């Protein structure tokens, strides 16, 4: 039985394969944030101004006599901890968001505490990312 000895061409192909495999995780991590990249170096209006000037009140509107109203500008990595802090049973998940991407979080809880509305907007493109109502 004859064993095939490595040739120069086979060694080169193997090196290319190893190089490509080692670069894949780096490339996929960058691509996963391509849609919503880090924007922590940018400045956006306050959460109060965003609510008053940008939020479509058909999408999200605070209760008139709320027990709690929250308006915060935060990063993607902190959204779920804020929802948990205010005992809101929803969460923001998904690929494509850089951990330092800025968002606006709005929460309103009715005076009797039985109803809750929350909304999360992307700070840069001003689009509603998610909305949840518990009435």
Labels describing this entry:
alpha+beta; DUF3887 domain-containing protein; 135 residues; four-stranded antiparallel β-sheet; 3 helices
End-to-end separation in angstroms reads: 77 Å
How many H/I helical runs?
3
Say what oligomer this is: single chain
Q: How do the strands line up in the largest sheet?
A: 1-2-3-4
Helix content range: 25-40%
In what range is the share of β-strand residues? 15-25%
- Average pLDDT reading: 83
Shape: globular
SSE class: alpha+beta
Tell me about the biggest sheet? 4 strands, antiparallel
Number of strands: 4
Work out the radius of gyration. Answer: 23 Å
Point out poorly predicted stretches: 12-28
Reading the helices and strands in chain order gives HHEHEEE
Q: What does this protein look like?
A:
This is DUF3887 domain-containing protein. The structure is a single chain. The protein has 135 residues and is α+β, with helices and mostly antiparallel strands. The protein has a domain at 47-134. 31% of the residues lie in helices and 24% in strands. The chain has three helices and four strands, in the order ααβαβββ. It has helices at residues 8-32, 47-53, 76-85; strands spanning 66-75, 102-110, 116-122, 128-134. A four-stranded antiparallel sheet has the order 1-2-3-4. A hairpin with a 5-residue loop joins strand 2 and strand 3 (116-122). The chain is globular and about 40 Å long. It starts with 7 loop residues before the first helix and ends with a strand.
């Amino acid at each position: 039985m004859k064993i095939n000895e490595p040739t120069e061409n086979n060694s080169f192909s193997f090196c290319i394969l190893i190089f490509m495999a080692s670069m894949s995780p780096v490339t996929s991590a960058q691509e996963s944030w391509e849609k919503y990249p880090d924007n922590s170096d940018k400045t956006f209006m306050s959460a109060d101004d965003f609510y008053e000037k940008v939020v479509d009140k058909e999408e999200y509107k605070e209760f008139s006599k709320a027990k709690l109203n929250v308006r915060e500008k935060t990063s993607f990595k902190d959204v779920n901890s804020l929802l948990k802090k205010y005992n809101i049973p929803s969460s923001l998940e998904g690929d494509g968001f850089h951990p330092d991407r800025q968002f606006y979080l709005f929460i309103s809880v009715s005076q009797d505490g039985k109803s809750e509305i929350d909304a999360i907007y992307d700070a840069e493109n001003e689009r509603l990312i998610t909305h949840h109502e518990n009435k």
